[in-house]
Amino acid sequence: MALTKEAFKARVYEWAQKLDIEVKTISIRPMKNKWASYTKKSQLLIFNTELLTMSKKIGDYVIVHELLHFNVPNHGKLWKSLMLAYLGDYEKIEKKIKMRCGRE
Description:
Blueprint (H helix, E strand, L loop, with lengths): L4 H14 L6 E5 L6 E4 L4 E5 L7 H13 L8 H11 L2 H12 L3
Parallel strand pairs: 1-3
Antiparallel strand pairs: 2-3
């Protein structure tokens, strides 16, 4: 069952609150090559509309992945340890996403 854009945005705000991150603007639109992106200068989060039809686990993975980039710009040890702390075995979800469409 697909989520509405409003319901997905509400999940983003819930995670942002848990991570103590202030989100200014969220956009949900079709994207050809990415699941999401974050622009630091404008604090704009953009999510792919395809996420509205995917499982909650995949949606949460993408949300947390992008929100962590507010404070951690790369995918190094700190980012990985935070992903593990918030999502548990996030690497299984990551593999599932990559196998599904080959996107990052």
